[in-house]
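Protein modeling request. Please complete all fields; requests missing the sequence field cannot be processed.
Requester role: graduate student
Desired output: 3D structure, token encoding
Chains: 1
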Amino acid sequence: MIKQLNAAPDHAKLVAWVNEWAELCEPEAIYWCDGTNTEYYGLCDEMVKSGLAVRLNSKLRPDCVLFKSDPSDVARVEARTYIASEKKEDAGPTNNWIDPVELKKEMRALYKGCMHGRTMYVIPYSMGPVGSNIAKIGVEITDSAYVVINMHVMTRVGNAVLDVLGKDGEFVPCIHSVGKPLENGASDNGIWPCAPMDKKYIAQFPETREIWSFGSGYGGNAILGKKCLALRIATVQARDEGWMAEHMLILKLTNPEGKVKYVTGAFPSACGKTNLAMLIPTLPGWKVETIGDDIAWMKFGKDGRLYAINPENGFFGVAPGTSMHSNKNAMLSCAKETIFTNCALRENGDIWWEGIEVPLEPGEKLIDWKGNVWEQGQVDADGNKVKAAHPNARFSARAKNCPAIASNWEDPNGVPIDAFLFGGRRPSTLPLVYQSMSWEHGVFIGSTVGSEVTAAALDVKAGTVRRDPFAMLPFCGYNMGDYFQHWLDIGKVEGAKLPKIFCVNWFRKTADGRWLWPGFGENSRVLKWIFERCDGEGKAVETPIGFMPTTDAIDRSGIENEVTDADIAELLTFDKEGWKNELAMIKEHYKKFDRLPKALADQLAQLEERLAK
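Delivered output (613 residues):
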């Protein structure tokens, strides 16, 4: 008999769904999460006592805990992530597909008895401010207390969500298990529970709006409100309901006169997205505030503008490389009430990672992310440096603790978007910034976003551009060609007052490898030009690729010695030969899409014509 640890809500469909999964998974008990601090800290205490977590020094890092995951369970497992649409062609060429009937049969067999010896937690959660007309409600079943506390940080959990759901409200059903049953009173003994890689599945069923996850306890594989609902399922909902679910930051930009604009931006990984979302501007009188660092949901308002919410409640940030220099606001966000995963543990009870720019004591020994003693300069048998923290080590921090968080970041009506930014890591060809000629041209820019990879990366040819359209390659829940068409359709909505579209590239280098642009807080200078262009101001010249700033349009006051006249000229030069090579690469890129909209093929042809002149 399964214990009922607390009362179920008065929602017949929800309760029946939970009972159906309990019958299959066979947990020891069922607990309905209420979202309270008592629940959160109680679960933290339980995991510390069990040895699964370490409580950090309360004076240095109050109310923070550190977890070490299994070495096989350290990141999203894209190879085991599926869009199980009814038709393979609806998943498209960029997603893994399995027949949904066959997949459900296979996964049901894995779920049978998978929660033996564990509590089944039921997490009602809202993506977005509770009650917002842009928000969506999900319910995640899980046997992982680690998932529960992360959902507390990353979403809005608990009774307030059930109140909005009422007796018959709609929700996205999400089922998750670590896939490690405990038989005959056994425990995890402080060891991270998960299943072998070939048993891991992260499955999205777009037609039925379901998420099934098995075998991983880590990140977006298990915290199902994150990428699974907020993007893979939400993109399908957005397509069908006429809104947008995007892998975009949202920032609030205020000029010295107090005028405000809101900007969203999509960037592939390692392109400074979080840094931009929490930017500290260097231009006097300018202010940047954070609405969201990762995901934007946007719907049209009555005035024809797109209004965006951040559907999340926290930041799931990559720790290595984050420092007071690279992202002061992120560091301050995780100063308290934070969950750290796969970071190193210092002797003083604080965390540490590569790039944190906090010096260690001479001879100081750390406990690395695998639980081993670690010293600076340590090398493995092959002579490679051993890292104390995993390269994908994470912090789950509450957005409310970010010093740059905007006062209106939880406005249920959303904020009106003025500009979309796209960008990648491109050492040549792409200028510092340019503006699209039209909405369709902007969609073309977004569909061709990419970053150049180095010779050391993934056994690919140096100079190869790895394309990541709209930074959505792993996250679009349906055929990417149809997703491009949805963007084009948004541009045709009657009465729409659409954001301007820009492409930025902070990563230009000289031929000898010197950075041409200082980046970080100086990016506020580019944001200033974008701000001006949204008002029909800002000096610009038309080129075959779009509207580019004149060399005196970017405010360089105070950095004239760092960014010289020659540097800004190079940053804002139209590279005709480079763009001819780019054109050839875009043609190859577009061949991958079986449902490429004609409008984008036309944009490609028009670019070719302009380059030929």
